[in-house]
Design brief:
The complex is a heterodimer of chains A (110) and B (116). In chain A, 0% of the residues lie in helices and 46% in strands. Chain A has 110 residues and is mainly β. In chain A, the strands form two sheets. In chain A, strands 2, 4, 5, 8, 9 and 10 form a six-stranded mixed beta sheet that branches. In chain A, strand 4 and strand 5 (46-49) form a beta hairpin. Chain A is globular. The N and C termini of chain A lie far apart (29 Å). In chain B, a hairpin with a 6-residue loop joins strand 5 (45-51) and strand 6 (58-60). The chains are: A mainly beta (110), B mainly beta (116).
Chain lengths: 110, 116
Amino acid sequence: QSVLTQSPSASGPPGQRVTISCSGSSSNIGTNTVKWYQQLPGTAPRLLIKSNNQRPSGVPDRFSASKSGTSASLAIGGLQSEDEADYYCAAWDDSLNGYVFGPGTKVTVV
Amino acid sequence: EVQLVESGGGLVKPGGSLRLSCAASGFSFSVVTMNWVRQAPGKGLEWVASISSHSDYISYADSMRGRCTVSRDNGKNTMYLHLSSLRADDTAVYYCTRGDPIFDYWGQGTLLTVSS
């Protein structure tokens, strides 16, 4: 059972906006920054959002993130076929004294 | 260019042990925290361990504590993960990652299969 929860899947046609949610608690998202990682099929994960809503260089600005209280969300505006991937939220957990990942959300472009 | 290359995976019998390596290049290895993250087949990501730049702060996931030891050799730009008392549910791709609290670079992973 993951400490962070995510909806298992999300989908939309090309061009649509899709939002992925990540829910945690006061010991993780509530007090620490949230990172988002993208894992394309058959590849290693890559950093998508550094800290709440900062994108590393090379990440398109159609990816944006936000946080409110103990929840966070990732939005993909203008969905593209290459966005089909698994998306994971992550944060440090002060109670567990370790990093926690969400179970991942599979995004499909239909 | 930052590169992280894992090695050492393979087939191990239950109860066995193994050492994974992560060779780093393209950055100042000795000043950054390094981490191991694993992913069981068809499953999500699980943080395993972290080691600070001079090995003075080390942390482990509860699921691995007592069965793994993370270490590093800054002279060789290499991080290690020694795994023991291996179980079938340790079967996973083990990724080496850089940074704290942001894992900004990932290696391609090395597959460890625990099976008799």
